[in-house]
Amino acid sequence: MAHHESAKVANSSNVIVATDCGSTTTKAILIEKVGDTYRQTYRGEAPTTVEAPFEDVTRGVLNAIAEIEELSGRKILDGDQIITPCRDDKTGVDIYISTSSAGGGLQMMVTGVVQNMTGESAQRAALGAGAIVIDVLAANDGRLPHEKIERIRTMRPDMILMAGGTDGGAVNHVVEMAEYVAAAEPRPRFGVTYKLPLIYAGNKEAQPQVRKILEEKSALVLTDNIRPVLERENLAPARNKIHDLFLEHVMQQAPGYKKLMEMAGAPIMPTPAAVGLIMEAIAKREHLNLIGVDIGGATTDVFSVFEGVFNRTVSANLGMSYSVSNVLAEAGLANIMRWVPFTIDEQTLRNRIKNKMIRPTTIPQTLDELQIEQAIAREALRLALIHHKSLATGLKGVQQERTISDVFEQQASGQSLIDMLKLDLIVGSGGILSHAPRRIQSMLMMVDAYEPMGCTR
What we know:
This protein is α/β, with parallel strands linked by helices. The protein has three domains: 2-100, Nucleotidyltransferase, domain 5 (2-Layer Sandwich), CATH 3.30.420; 106-253, Response regulator (Rossmann fold, 3-Layer(aba) Sandwich); 272-394 and 410-450, 2-Layer Sandwich (Nucleotidyltransferase, domain 5). The protein contains 15 helices and 16 strands. The chain has helices at residues 2-11, 57-72, 118-128, 145-155, 172-184, 207-214, 236-253, 257-263, 271-286, 324-331, 333-337, 346-358, 367-391, 431-434, 439-450, and strands at 15-21, 25-34, 37-47, 77-78, 81-82, 95-100, 106-112, 131-138, 159-162, 197-200, 219-222, 269-270, 290-295, 300-306, 309-315, 425-429. The strands form four sheets. The protein has a five-stranded mixed sheet with strand order 3-2-1-6-12.
């Protein structure tokens, strides 16, 4: 009987431990099945341990899980191993899963032919897969060949996505870009021994030439064109390839990730890709339009689903610890000051913001520190949504009746998909929102930043 019972538990995941390795903090949660529903029962957190002196992400993971053990009284760890599956009511878990954005996340460079057509499609494909786009190179971006080569060489991305041209169109621009990449001989950010992963998702006619130029120089993968015709985007194949290569190459090189991948019972996902799946699932299940945000220490991710179309953008320079000075620079002091409910001189505010940047793991100790952080969060959220609106657009370059002078000014096609009057739900996550002392503060931060119209939950 006992044997039969344990087999039944092993087949169904009743107890799940999940971790998220962020840039600043590693969070762990315990999810248990209570009756027919899953509940988050306990949570623990610990500083992320990707950097020196530890240089091993699993230390922070074990520390966060140890905190859950203490709070729940359940024995989960056996030394450095997670006990799976459950042995009895108080020992082990059925599965361990993890997401990660530590070590700077997934940094990508994308190339296209026309910057606001295939360049923008490539950017959307990379962002949807959970990447940070560090540069968009295009045939018409105004940079000279040697500047492009120098840029590819100095940026050291984790991966490059090459797009350009519709299927059957001209190949010369795409081949030219491949030659620049080959000439730059780009080195990846982590790991000196392996070749840089490169995905080609452009005009299929150019595949043989691209293969000839780049096969020796990089770990080349060919996939379907992301813009087979101007009227249609086909981002899924490129997105899936990015995800696969991220696990195969980038994750293998980051400190301690090999161990983490062996511990987990499912592939590790980049945090933004996992949050994106959650947002898509909510929108699909409830049949609604939503905007979601995940505000972290280094980056802020914005997700939207409008009329079933999913978009994600990442503002890589807007965050609450590592990137807090950038929020000040972009928003301007006056915009932050307007949310601070007491008088404070400019120099003091600047000093407080700089202190947060050099000590990213500190949390507010006094009420005014909290109010200043929440003021900065409003501006980070506001700026990230403006950035999202500019990228979550219809396709540009689609045929419309117009004169030759309009062709170069593509404003009419490519309107933003974000319509605040049609918005049904705002979802917020990230330290500053989830750890606000009162829930109403989180709501007010999002309402002040997004200024929703009509009825929004």
